[in-house]
Amino acid sequence: MKVKELAEIAGISVRTLHHYDEIGLLTPAQKNASGYRIYSEKDLSRLQQILFFRELDFPLKKIKEIMNRPDFDREEALLMHRKMLEEKRRRLDQMIRTIDRTIQNEKGEITMSDKEKFAGFDFSHNPYEQEARKRWGDKAVDESNHKIGRMSHEQQKALGEEFDRIYKDLAAIRHSSPDSEEAQVAIKVWYDYLNKIGHYSLDAFKGLGQMYVADERFTKNIDQYGEGLAVFMRDAMAVYADRNQK
Hints:
single chain; 70% helix; 246 residues; Multidrug-efflux Transporter Regulator, Chain: A, Domain 2; Globin-like; 13 helices
C-alpha cells in the first residue's frame, strides 16, 4: 500500500511515516515507477511494533536500536508490551477511581483520608520498563557512566562547574517564554552538555524534560536554582526537540 493508505490505517500522519523512513526506522520495501513509497505486510507489522514502543514513551532512537538488534524477538517484545500496558492500565484505573472519589468528596458525599487522595500516584520506575531496559540495554546511561568514569578528577570537577553554570543561566531567564530565542539558545547549551557525557536523541531530551516535572525528586532538586525552573526547562526542551526534528 502507499504511504497515505498506511497513514490512514495506522492513524498517524504521512509526515511521520516520511520521518521514520528518513531516519531508517521504517524504510518501505520498494518504490513504484513514480517514486512513491510502497509498504509491504512486513512493513506494516514493523510499524505496529514501533507504535507499541511509542505508546510506552520509548524514544525513536531507542526503538531503532532495539528493533535492529540481531537477537530481537518480535513475540518476546509483544509479550513485554502487554505486561507494560497492563501495568499502565492498572495505574490509570486507580487514578480514575481516585478522581471519582475526589468528586464525591468535593460534593460532601464521602470523606477521603489524606492517603486516599493520592491513591494511584506513583512516580517510581515501572518494573516492566526496568525489565525491558535490562533486556535491551540502556546505551545512553552506559555511555555516560563509562565516559565520566574515564575522566580525571579535574575534568569531572570542570564538568560539575559547567553544570552549575548552565543551571544558573537558565534560572536567570526562567520567567521568559520557553520558545523565545534567548530560552532556545540557553537550552541548546544544556542539550550540548548532555551529549558530552552521553548520547541523547531529541526524543530522549524531550522525555527527560517531562521527567523534570513528573518526578517530584527532579523538580525539588532543579527548583533549588529558582522556583519554576523545572517547568521552564521542560517546556523549553520540548520546543527545542520539536523544532529540530528532521
